[in-house]
Amino acid sequence: MVDSWERARHVLREAGLDPGRLAHLRPLTGGTYNTVEELRLTDGNRYVLKVPPPATTPGLRHERRLLVSEAEFYRSAAGVEVPAPRLVTLRDDFLLMTACPGEAWDDTLTDAEHLTLRTELGREAARLHRVTGPGFGYPSGALGPLAAGWRTAFTTMFDAVLDDARRYGARLPRPVDAVARTASSAYGALEEVTVPRLVHFDLWRGNILVDRSAGGPRVGGLIDGERMFWGDPVAEFVSLALLGDIREDEAFLAGYREAGGRVGFDAPVRLRYALYRAYLYLIMLTETVPREAGEEHQRWVQERVAPELVAALDEIEDTAAS
């Protein structure tokens, strides 16, 4: 059993910080994969430590070397001044970053505050999407090297989670082969994406910190960038409207366009948006098996996530047919 304090002191030493200044260690909950802890030093500085599970831990194919992708996200966010943790040290067995101010987005906001934050979030997302990468796909290399084309990269990503669903016997609302056939009918729309851009792909409310320290709420940080890939900015809209539809979020879209983000929802974009929704919801349904999710969470994904996968597949079929 690894002693958390001793591990934290080792990490601080590796990062060139005085391990004797470690004053407080607090486990952070909410994640389902890595071990995450907040380290507070005697000078008041706060850091977040992430430690991956053992290599033998069951997972999905794209989940190898997640910390590499997360570190890339923080480097990239810093370059466009998007509020996010700043990378301190990356090793094979840990990632150390600065802590951001604020708490996870919750239901305590007023309607006016909510709209203001959604507009600000749109601006931050547009800034992220200015960052371009050296190729398409996961920086971790979990599914192979970056690809020259988005269609090649994304179909590899989609096929990997389909293989995971087969391997783990995931409970899906449609047979895996039927999901594959429907998805493939939309792959032509991926050819429109020619520039690999930064996509966080996990910007649900739990990964958006809201900071109230200066008065009104502001976005304090975009965290947990481990699912990041180089790809199509439209894919970002899935988690930003998790189990919903970004096309109905006028405040977010206004902020996104205000900061230079370009988005319209013609037929090819609708097909791609539906593909990316199907991809995320496939992940959410399949990961319950290696995570050994409890009965309550299993019931939630079947009641909430499975219908959204069906809706995404139906939209692909309807849009492709028309």
TrEMBL record:
SUPFAM superfamilies, per database record: Protein kinase-like (PK-like)
Domain Aminoglycoside phosphotransferase span(s) in chain numbering: 25-266
Superkingdom of origin organism: Bacteria
UniProt cross-references to InterPro entries, sorted A to Z: AGP_Transferase (IPR051678), Aminoglycoside_PTrfase (IPR002575), Hygromycin-B_Kinase (IPR016259), Kinase-like_dom_sf (IPR011009)
Pfam families xrefs: APH (PF01636)
Name of this chain's protein: Aminoglycoside phosphotransferase family protein
Organism this protein belongs to: Streptomyces venetus
Source lineage: Bacteria, Bacillati, Actinomycetota, Actinomycetes, Kitasatosporales
